[in-house]
Specification:
212 residues, alpha/beta, five-stranded mixed β-sheet, 5 strands, 14% strand, globular, disordered N terminus
């Protein structure tokens, strides 16, 4: 597992050279799970800030993610986290929800950025589109320090929410699978049916299989 500090400031520097003073990174977490909201983080880092082990959240151990979560919030120029509910995901679609969560996170920053670096290659869905000036960056969470920081905030925030839901709905064992479609999760669904935080639009195949 790669957990070294990566030299990931090129995209931020390029944006600054274009005249954008405040550049944020933005990423989401939780697009794929069967339950829970989709989360997004937005971060404006201080130029040249060094955060050891900063990387794509999926490449960092949970313990270091927790440490980075605190460090990013303390050391960044601005940060914010936002989410879109399972109900809204069901009412629209997951791409629109992902994009909306990212725009909500950007809007929630205490100072508004001039430009945003967005992880991935999608900036609009059927029901929602990003409006902040931006560029999409494929594998951005391993190429941009700001996007990597945003990915940490989104991932840790969502995991902590699912751990809270594990206390509210202990039978589903959300703390173990965080809502993803694991064998254990499907076993719990078979036994207890959907909870109030399940995405019903994500359960169509499961419901069809139950009906036989």
């Amino acid at each position: 597992m790669c957990e070294k500090m990566l030299p990931m400031w090129e995209l931020e520097e390029a944006a600054h050279e274009k005249g954008y003073a405040l550049v944020c990174g933005c990423d989401e977490a939780g697009a794929g799970p069967l339950a829970g909201p989709v989360y997004a983080g937005a971060v404006i880092l201080r130029p040249g800030l060094e955060l050891p082990y900063l990387n794509d959240s999926k490449q960092v151990t949970p313990k270091r993610r927790d440490l980075l979560f605190d460090q990013i919030r303390e050391a960044s120029a601005a940060w914010a986290v936002a989410s879109v509910s399972p109900e809204e995901i069901d009412a629209t679609d997951i791409l629109s929800a992902r994009v909306k969560a990212m725009q909500l996170a950007i809007n929630a920053l205490p100072v508004q950025p001039d430009y945003a670096l967005i992880d991935g290659n999608r900036d609009k869905g059927k029901h929602f589109a990003l409006v902040t000036p931006h560029e999409t960056v494929i594998k951005g969470d391993s190429r941009s320090a700001s996007i990597a920081a945003a990915s940490i905030l989104a991932k840790v925030s969502r995991d902590r929410y699912m751990e809270e839901m594990a206390e509210k709905y202990p039978q589903y064992r959300f703390a173990q699978h965080k809502g993803y479609g694991t064998k254990l999760h499907y076993e719990m669904l078979d036994q207890y049916g959907p909870s109030p935080i399940h995405r019903r639009s994500f359960l169509k195949k499961w419901e069809a299989a139950r009906r036989g």
